[in-house]
Amino acid sequence: MDDDFGGSLTPPISPYVIERMETEVEGCKPPCFSCILDHRDEDRAFSVDGYLVSGSLNRLLLMLDPSPTVYEADTVNIFDFQWVTETALVESPQLLFGLLRYEFLSMERCSLSCQAKRIHCEADEIRQQCVNFLQYIKVFLFRYLEPSRELSEESVHPYDEVEAKLPSVLVEELHALTLYIGHLGELPSNILGTLTTQNQGKIFPPSWHLLHLHLDIHWSILEILHILGEKMLGQVVYAHQFMNLTGENLTSTSLFEDHCNNLLRDLIGLAVNRYIEVRPSEVLTTCHYQCGCVKELWALVIQLLNHRKKASHTGAFWSWLNNHLRNMLQGVGSMEGVHLWDITHCKDPLGFNWWLVTHLAMLHLFDRSGTTDEKKPMENNWKFVEELLKLSCPSQAGVLEEHLRMHLQCCLTLCELWDPNLTTVTTLWEYYSKHLNGAFNIPWLGLKGLASVSKSPFSMLEMTKICCCGDQSPNLYQSENSFQFFLRILALQMKKGKETSGTHPWKQLKGRIYSKFHQRKMQELSEMGLQNFISLFLVLSAVAEMEDVVSRVSDLLDLLNPSLLSVTQRSLMWRGCFAFLLLYEEKNIDVSFLATKLSDAFQKVAKEFYLKTTDFTRKVTLWTLLSTYMDAVQEVFETSSYLHLSEEKLLNEGFSLLYPACRESELNTSLMFLQTVLARLRYTAPAPLVAKERHLAIASALWKNFFPFLKSQRLSQMPPTQVADAAAGFTLLAMDMPSAAPPELQPQPLEAILRLFGWDDMVFPQLVSRYLIHLIQNSSVVEALTSLGCNWYQTSFIHSWFRCVLQQHINQPTVAPDRKDHGRISMDQLAELTRIVCKLPEIENLFFQAQLTQSAVKMEPKTAVFLFVKAVGKTYTQLQTLGDKSAMVSKALEYVGDILKYTKPYLANKGPAEGLQLMYWTVGCLVKHWAPMLSTSKAQQLLFRIIDCLLLPHALFHQDKELPPAMLSAIRDNLPLYLQGLSTIVGQTQIQGAYVKQQLRRIVQHYFGRFLPSSPGSGIMNHPILLAFSESVSAVQAQNLRKTVLLVISENYIQFRGHAPPPRLAAVLAFLLELLERKPSADVAFETKLLLPTTLKCLILVNEPQVKKIVSAVLQRMIENCQLVSPDQPCIHLTSFIQEYIGIYDHQVYNVMEKVTALDRDLVIGLIPTLTQALTEAEFKQGLGRRHSQRESYRRLLSLLGEPGQAEIVKLEKESD
User: Fold this and answer.
1) Model confidence over 208-243: pLDDT tens digits?
2) Angle at the Cα of 733 (from 729 to 735), degrees rounded to 5?
3) Residue 87: is it exposed, middle or buried by C-beta count within 10 angstroms (0-12/13-18/19+)?
4) Under a CB-based contact definition with an 8 Å cutoff, are residues 1100 and 1145 in contact?
5) Which residue in 924, 928, 873 sits closest to 895, CA to CA?
6) Contacts of 1151 (CB under 8 A, 6+ apart)
7) Could you tell me which residue, 184 or 602, shows the higher pLDDT?
8) In this structure, what DSSP letter does residue 345 have?
9) What is the pLDDT of residue 148?
10) What does the pLDDT read at residue 250?
C-alpha cells in the first residue's frame, strides 16, 4: 500500500478555493447509472442522471468537453484530497488509481453491512467519489493530453517526461482496474440480485451501489480508452512497463477490444439469466435486462461501437455481438444446452439468440440522447439472422411449434425494424412448402393453440388484411401460428421491397413459390393444407400482382378433382375463391371470371341436391356446400359498394333447383339469404352509370331464379315467415325497378304482386299480416300506388287486415311443438298490423265521422275490429242521400269481402274454439251495427247466408247430428248480437222484413229451448235471448224481439197436452217472468191475450209449489202491466177462464180470483156478476141444488171485495132463503 501512495502531493490551498470547488462539484454532478426515475424523467426511457439523457455520450462521440463547467478551478477534490487540476493525473496516476481501488474495496465492505440507512449514505458517497475521479480522467485527457511527441536529446523537463508516459501508464492502470473489479458475471448472487430491487424512497442497499459502480467503471473504461485513442490521433499506445514485466502485448486498442468483448460477454450472461424467466408467449414483452441501467449500458455500447465503425472502419456492434452468439449456437441440438464460461448455462441458445437480437435491434431506435428516433437508418444484422432462420427451419427434424412461433415473432419484429431482405422469405418458404399440411398447434395452449379453418370468405380476407397491416397485438403468439407469422413476414418484406424497388421482389419470389405447386402437390393437400395454400395466395394477391396471382390460384384449383375431395375441402375451396372475389370487389375489378366458375360449380351441386334419387344423407352433406355458397354470396353483396361488377352471375339457375328441394330449416336459411340480397340491391346507390345496368341485371336474375318459387309458396298452409319478408322485398323491387319484373306482372308489377301476396283471400293470414307490415307504413309504396291510380288500395289493405284478424286461429291446432311460439309471434304481428292499418287516412276519417277515438283501440286487434265495425255502421246512419248510402254499403261489403268463405275453415274443422268465438262475435257485431245496411238489397244475400250458415245450419235440423260443443258455445255467447240486429231488420222493408221475421222466429224457437235450463235458477238470467234485451237496445228493437220471443214461447213451450203441463214449465215461466220484468211492453193487450190464459190455466192445473210460486209472480207482473196501460184488459180473459173452469175446478177458480183480488180488487169487483152467474149455472147443470162448499168459497172471495162483495153476499142469502 505504501507504494500505491508514493509521489508528491500538491501543496495546501486556501479554504475559499476549497469551498468554491465543492460548490461547482455539487452544482454539476458527473453522469452515472441510475434506476431512480423522478419527475425530471417524464416519459423518458432513461434517467436524466445517466449517460444518454445527460448528453455525456453525445459529447463523447462528438469529441466535446465531457464536463465543460466542471474542473475549471486550479484544484480539484478527489477522494477527499486536494489536487492540482492540470497535473494531478500526470504526477500521481498510480496513487489516484490506488485510491480508486481502496474506495472500491470500501464499497465491497459496505455491502456486507446491515445498517441500511447509514451505510446507504456512505456507499452513495463512495460511489460519487469514484465516478468523480473517472469523470476527471475523461476531462483531463480531453483538456490537457497532447499527442506523444519525440523528446529531443537536449535536457527535458521532468514533467514533460512523465507526461509523455501518461498514455502508457493509463493503459496499464485501466488494465489493472479491469482485473481488480473482475467480470459482472462473477459477482455474487446477492449483488446481482439488486438489479431487480425496486425504488423505495431512493434508499438502496450498498450492494445496489456496488453493482452500479461496476457498471460505471466498465463503461468509463471504454470511454477513457476511446478518448485516449481520439487524442492520440489513432496512434496505438503500448503499455511498456507491463510488456517488460510479463512479456505479453498490451495496447490501448487490445485493451479496448478485450474489455469490450468481456463486457459483452458479461451482458450476454446477464441476459441469459433473464431469459430463464421468459415464456415463449412473452418474448417481446420481457426485456433482456433486469434493470434500466443494464439497458442503458447496452445502448451505450451499441452507440459507441457503431460510431467507431464509421470513424475507424472497425467492426460494428452486430459484428462484435455475432462472434459471441455464434459460439453459443455451436451447442444447438444438445440436450444439455450451452455453458457460457463455466458460469452461465443456457438450455435454449437458439431461442435466446432470437430474443436477444430482437431486443437489441429495438435499442437501435434510440439516438445518442436516449430518445426514440424511428426515422433514423438502422444497422441490420440480416446475415446472422439468416443463420438463425436456417437453424429454426431445418430440413430434417423440425423445431417445436412453440419455439418456432417465438422465433418467427422475433423475425417479424426485425423485419419491421430493418430494411427488406428476401432471403428470409425464401428460407422460410423452403421450410413451409414442405409442411403446408401441418396444423402448427401447441398442445399446452389448449383451444387457443389449435389451428382453425376460417369460417367465411370475409374472415379469410380479414385475416389477410391483418397479416398485411403489420400491427402486432399483445396476444399474437396465442392467436396465430407460425405459418401465419410467415405470411406476415412475407407481406411485410414484399411491401417494403416494393416501396424501394417496385415489382422487383415479386419477380424474385414468383418462380420460387409457383414452382412448388403441381398436380401431385395439390392432391396431397389436406384440409389444413388447403387452408394454408389459400391464405398464402390471398396474401400474395394483396401485396403482389393480384390478377396474376388469382389466375394462378384458379389454375391450381382446377387440378383438383371435386369427386375426390371431401365436402369440407370443397367448402373451404369455395370460401377461398370467394375471398379472392371479395378482394376483387375492394379493388373495383369485374368479378365475372371468378363468379362464373363458382356459380357453375354451385349449379351442379344444386342439381344433385334437387334430384329425388339423391338420398337423405347425401343431401345433408351437399347442404354444407350450398349454405357455404349462399353465405359467401351474401358477404359479396354486403361488402360491395355499388354492385356493378357482374355480381348477377352469382345468382344463376341453381337457386331455382335449390329452393324446391329444401326442408323447413334449410328453406329458412335460403330465404334469409334472399332477403339480404334484395335489401342490398335496393339500398345500394348506383353511383356509376354502369351500375344501373348491372342492378337491372341482378333484379332480372332474382325475378327469374327466385320469384317463381316464392309465388308457389303463397298458397301453402303454413309457409315460413321469411316468405312474407322476401315477398315484401320483391314488392319494393317491383316499385323501384318495374321494367325488370317478369311479363306476367306487367304492366303494373307493383299492383300485381300486391294482389298476389296481400289482397288474395286464399293466402295464409300470418303471411299476409307480416307482408303488409313491411309495406303499409312505407311512404314510397303509398306514393307509388297513388301515382298508378290505385285509389282503392286503402280499402284493400283494410279488407286484408279484417280477414287476418278473423283468420288468426286457422290451422292453430296443427302448429308443431317446436313452433310453440308461433301463436305469440302471429299475435304480435297482428297487433302491429292493426296499429298500422288504424293510421290509414280512410280509417281515421271513419273514426272521425263516427266521433270515435283511436286511442281506445290500444293496438288490440279484436277491439279495433269492433270499433271499426261500429264506426262504419254509425257513419252509414249519418248519411242523408241514397247515393251516399248505396256507396257506403258497397264500401262496407268490400271491407268484409266474402266473410263466410274465408271463415269456413272454422266451421269445417269444428274449431278451434277461439276461432269460432271470434268468427261468431265479429259477424254478430256486423249484424248488430250494420243492420240498416244488411237490410238493403245489396247486402241481403250476405245477411241470408249469415243466417243460413251460422245461425240455422243444416245440422240443426237433423236429429242424428249435433252441433259441435265449440260452435254451440260460440252461438250461445254471441246470439244476443244477432237477435238485436235481426230485430232491427224486421222493421225494415216488408218483403225482407217478413222473411227475416220468419227466420228470427225459427232462431228463437231453436235456441230458446236449447239454452233453457231444466229448472229455474241463476242460469235463466244468462239466457242469450234474455241478454239480447240489454239497455243498449232501442225500444223498437226490443218490442220486435219481445213479440217474437213471446209468440215462440206461447206456441211451443207453454201449451198443455190435455191436463198435462209442458216440460220444463218452471224454467219457461221463470224466463217469462224475467222478460216481463225487464221493461213494460208497448203492446200490453197482445201480451195479455197471449199469456194470461195460459198463466191462469197453470194456476188451476199445476200443483207444484215452485211452478205456482213463479206463475203467481207472472200473473202479478201481467196485472201490474195492465194497470199501467189498460186496467180492464184482463176482464175478457178472466171471464172466459171463470166460465170454462168453475164447473169442475170451482175451489181452484175462487183461489185464483183471490190472488187476482190481492193484485187488483176493482178488476174482480167488475167480475162479480160473471162469478155469480157462473155459480148459478154450475149448480143448475149439476141438478143437485145449492152446493154449500162452493157458496162458502164464493162467500169468502166476496168478503175480500168490500161493499160490493157484502152486497152480493146479502143478495145470495136472500135468494137462498
Assistant:
1) 899 999 999 999 999 999 999 999 887 889 988 888
2) 120
3) middle
4) yes
5) 873
6) 1099
7) 602
8) E
9) 65
10) 92
Per the omega criterion (within 30 degrees of 0), is the bond before 912 cis? yes
By three-state DSSP, how is residue 75 classified? strand
Amino acid sitting at position 186? E
β-pair partners for 81:
78
- Work out the number of other CB atoms within 10 angstroms of the CB of residue 283: 21
**Grid coordinates belonging to 574:** 369455395
3-class SS of residue 923: helix
Residue of 1152 and 707 predicted with greater confidence: 707
Domain ranges of the chain: 56-146+159-331+342-383, 453-589, 869-1127, 1128-1216
The pLDDT assigned to 858 comes to 59
- Orientation angle between helical segments 1084-1101 and 1035-1052, nearest 10 degrees: 30
Compute CA distances 905 → 476, 761, 827, 900, 943, whole Å: 64, 13, 19, 9, 19
Which residue has cell 367465411? 456
pLDDT band of residue 55 (cuts 50, 70, 90) is: very high
Residue 222 CB neighbour total at 10 angstroms: 22
Residue 554 to residues 453, 584, 594, 603: CA-CA distances in angstroms?
20, 14, 8, 18
Q: What is the pLDDT of residue 23?
A: 40
Report how far residue 1105's alpha carbon sits from residue 1093's, in angstroms, rounded to the nearest whole number: 19
| The model's pTM | 0.80
Burial group, residue 386, by CB count within 10 angstroms (0-12, 13-18, 19+): middle
344, β-bridge pairs? 340
The confidence band for 398, taking pLDDT boundaries of 50, 70 and 90, is: low
User: For 545-586, how does the pLDDT look when each residue is reduced to its tens digit (9 = 90+)?
Assistant: 999 999 999 999 999 999 899 999 999 999 999 999 999 999
Please list the alpha-helical segments (H only) found in 688-840. Answer: 689-705, 707-713, 721-736, 749-757, 765-776, 779-787, 793-806, 822-837
Reading the block at residue 855, the C-alpha cell is: 286511442
pLDDT above 80: residue 313: no
Q: Are 262 and 318 within 8 A, CB to CB?
A: no
How wide is the angle at C-alpha 1192 spanned by C-alphas 1190 and 1198, nearest 5°? 105
Contact (Cβ atoms closer than 8 angstroms) between residue 754 and residue 731: yes
Which grid coordinates are listed for 367?
439516438
Query: Does residue 1013 have a cis bond before it (omega within 30 degrees)?
Result: no
Whether the CB-CB separation of 69 and 139 falls below 8 Å is answered with no
Over residues 1173-1194, the pLDDT tens digits come to 888 888 787 766 677 788 888 8
d(CA 60, CA 671): 76
pLDDT at 14 over 60: no
Name residues whose C-beta falls within 8 Å of residue 1128's C-beta, 6 or more positions apart in sequence.
1163, 1166
